């Protein structure tokens, strides 16, 4: 696994936290994610004295993504449970069965959802393996384990959406999975990904190494509804996602999770080639010195995936400031592709302890700072965004969040960002008090050059949450600050300029051209065809 150590780095949300315990020796050929538009095959192998940085692209995929497994290693019992369709489960326990209830899609602007159906082609046996040299590994379907609180699972599934075809077919792979440790009862994270997929002609079974990731068609929304039972209670803390105009229905009493929205389109950033000897200044200053001291080598000589790039993937929780540092390298960071994504991941319960102000609010509201509650959700199309809870600035009563993308896209047009923030209303009231009654927010976008733009917006309420939608800001490495206050003026509605038109007016042999929004001929003149 790449980037296996993380001095000074925040690792949250995904499989690398847990599967780093169990994975070993993954074959690059079968484990590399292959995409039709752009993948690492486009990059040349670097000479030993050169390094480049790749941002926002997750190149590796393997059995830990698509199949359920348990692992007992060094007294740590880890697991992954990949949810199966409810229709494939003979007996459903309303409390303890977690499964995929439905997948659907519709054209943007439409009110009618169309149901996806399970594809006639499904995944076969895994073609990548987990090393068994360090412990006991079991791969395959699993049942709910009441002793450890582990949900049941099987494998990822392919769903057919004929009304929403992508460039190479109509099938989409759905991964909906819990990852956790049975050493900590009920402690797990959840990751859901919908992926347009193609594969060679076959007789009903396709292996992982034959899957090709396609891009989402534009102009569609997708909805995944999951039956969760009691496991809905494990989805605590913060959610992080790659969905445009997202809607989350996290219904605790009824035990289901519904995720809806359009895919996000993510700029993938690549730096120029830089000499290893001079590259240390572009790496994290909290991480690089420790590595140099430990390894006695420059930081750029390590962790070069396939010897093609030092990778910074958002799923690994890298600080967005890393992209900003590489912007100062010769050639900066350019967009090499814009790839689509539809995904949601939850944070681990233990990360709640990193925000003392949130713990105080939870204690005040629920009577226990350890209460397992939903704290908020963040969605963005940024190449890199902070996959840890937004920081609370107590001095200015604002949430602070970092994002980063290359300034320009592949065509030289400015990349534009969006950022959606959900905050439960009770948590918002704990932070901002009576200021929430106005439902107005001030948004500051602080660019890497120090320039600040300020705007106001109306926060909407949705299923017990305040929702803040921010869109249209530029990159490369802005910081977003959001606050609510009684001093915030109402947002000013944008006035669309009315288009002027011209008419032709005639009086005898005199002809006049009159221009205006509602032009009228002067007295004595008659309007004629232009």
What order do the helices and strands come in, and which of them pair?
Blueprint: H1 15-19, H2 28-31, E1 50-51, E2 53-55, H3 63-66, E3 69-73, E4 76-82, E5 99-107, E6 114-115, E7 117-118, E8 122-123, E9 136-139, E10 157-160, E11 171-181, E12 188-198, E13 205-206, E14 212-213, E15 220-227, E16 237-251, E17 256-271, E18 274-275, H4 288-295, E19 304-305, E20 309-312, H5 321-327, E21 333-341, E22 343-346, H6 356-366, E23 374-380, E24 384-385, E25 391-393, E26 398-404, E27 416-424, H7 425-432, E28 440-446, E29 452-458, E30 460-462, E31 465-474, E32 479-484, E33 501-507, E34 510-516, E35 526-528
Parallel strand pairs: 2-20, 8-13, 16-23
Antiparallel strand pairs: 1-18, 2-17, 3-4, 3-9, 4-11, 5-6, 5-15, 7-10, 10-11, 11-12, 12-14, 12-22, 15-17, 16-17, 16-22, 17-21, 19-20, 23-27, 24-26, 25-26, 26-32, 27-31, 28-29, 28-32, 30-31, 33-34, 33-35
Any overview of this molecule?
A hairpin with a 4-residue loop joins strand 25 and strand 26. Helices cover 9% and strands 38% of the residues. It contains seven helices and 35 strands. The protein is globular. With 530 residues, the protein is mostly beta strands. It has three domains: 28-58 and 268-337, no CATH class; 63-267 and 338-484, no CATH class; 500-530, no CATH class. The protein starts with 14 loop residues before the first helix and ends with a strand. The model is unreliable at 1-30 (pLDDT under 50). The chain has a 22-stranded mixed β-sheet that branches.
């Amino acid at each position: 696994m790449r980037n296996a150590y993380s001095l000074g780095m925040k690792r949250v949300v995904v499989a690398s936290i847990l599967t780093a315990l169990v994975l070993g020796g993954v074959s690059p050929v079968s484990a590399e994610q292959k995409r039709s538009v752009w993948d690492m095959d486009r990059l040349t192998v670097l000479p030993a004295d050169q390094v480049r940085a790749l941002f926002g692209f997750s190149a590796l995929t393997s059995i830990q993504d698509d199949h359920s497994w348990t692992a007992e290693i060094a007294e740590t019992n880890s697991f992954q449970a990949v949810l199966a369709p409810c229709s494939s489960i003979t007996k459903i326990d309303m409390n303890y069965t977690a499964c995929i209830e439905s997948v659907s899609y519709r054209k943007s602007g439409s009110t009618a959802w169309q149901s996806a159906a399970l594809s006639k082609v499904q995944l076969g046996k895994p073609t990548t393996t987990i090393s068994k040299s360090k412990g006991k590994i079991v791969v395959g379907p699993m049942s709910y384990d009441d002793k450890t609180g582990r949900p049941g699972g099987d494998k990822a599934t392919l769903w057919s959406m004929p009304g929403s075809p992508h460039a190479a077919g109509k099938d989409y792979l759905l991964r909906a999975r819990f990852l956790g440790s049975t050493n900590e009862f009920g402690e797990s994270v959840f990751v859901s990904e919908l992926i347009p997929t193609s594969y060679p002609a076959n007789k009903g079974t396709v292996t992982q190494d034959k899957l090709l990731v396609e891009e989402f068609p534009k102009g569609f929304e997708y909805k995944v509804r999951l039956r969760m039972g009691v496991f809905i209670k494990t989805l605590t803390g913060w959610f992080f996602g790659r969905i445009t105009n997202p809607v989350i229905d996290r219904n605790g009493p009824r035990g289901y999770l519904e995720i809806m929205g359009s895919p996000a389109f993510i700029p993938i950033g690549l730096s120029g080639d830089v000499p290893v000897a001079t590259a240390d200044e572009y790496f994290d200053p909290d991480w690089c010195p420790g590595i140099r001291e430990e390894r006695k080598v420059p930081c750029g000589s390590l962790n070069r995936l396939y010897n093609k790039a030092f990778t910074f993937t958002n799923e690994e929780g890298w600080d967005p400031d890393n992209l900003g540092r590489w912007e100062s390298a010769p050639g900066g960071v350019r967009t090499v592709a814009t790839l689509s994504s539809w995904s949601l991941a939850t944070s681990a319960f233990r990360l709640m302890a990193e925000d003392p102000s949130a713990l105080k609010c939870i204690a005040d509201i629920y009577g226990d700072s350890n209460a397992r509650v939903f704290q908020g959700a963040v969605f963005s199309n940024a190449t890199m965004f902070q996959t840890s809870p937004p920081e609370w600035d107590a001095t200015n009563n604002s949430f602070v969040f970092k994002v980063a993308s290359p300034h320009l896209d592949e065509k030289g047009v400015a990349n534009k960002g969006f950022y959606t923030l959900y905050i439960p209303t009770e948590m918002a009231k704990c932070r901002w008090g009576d200021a929430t009654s106005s439902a107005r927010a001030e948004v500051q976008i602080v660019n890497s050059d120090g320039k600040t733009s300020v705007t106001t917006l109306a926060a909407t309420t949705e299923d017990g949450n305040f929702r803040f939608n921010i869109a249209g800001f530029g990159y490369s490495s802005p910081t977003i600050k959001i606050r609510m206050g009684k001093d915030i003026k109402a947002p000013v509605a944008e006035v669309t300029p009315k288009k002027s038109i011209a008419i032709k007016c005639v009086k005898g042999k005199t002809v006049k051209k009159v221009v205006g929004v509602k032009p009228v001929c002067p007295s004595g003149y008659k309007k004629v065809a232009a």
